[in-house]
Amino acid sequence: MAVRKIALACSVCGSRNYTITENKNRTTRLEVNKFCKHCGKYTIHKETR
Ligand SMILES: [Zn+2]
């Protein structure tokens, strides 16, 4: 049973601030509003491959 790790990168500065694990099949790309310490504010974070 494989568990994939996905990095969430800030869409503004590109920093990979968060990593999540995923074990379900998905078809849509993940977008989460999270706090970026580099930008100093909440930004959209997108998954990277
Ligand atoms: Zn940022």
Automatic annotation (TrEMBL):
Pfam family, one: Ribosomal_L33
One CC-aspect GO term: ribosome
Any one GO molecular-function label of the UniProt entry: structural constituent of ribosome
Gene3D superfamilies recorded: Ribosomal protein L33
Keywords: Ribonucleoprotein, Ribosomal protein
UniProt GO BP: translation
Xref: HAMAP family: Ribosomal_bL33
UniProt-listed NCBIfam families: PRK00504.1, rpmG_bact
Entry similarity comment: Belongs to the bacterial ribosomal protein bL33 family.
Protein name: Large ribosomal subunit protein bL33
Gene name linked to the record: rpmG
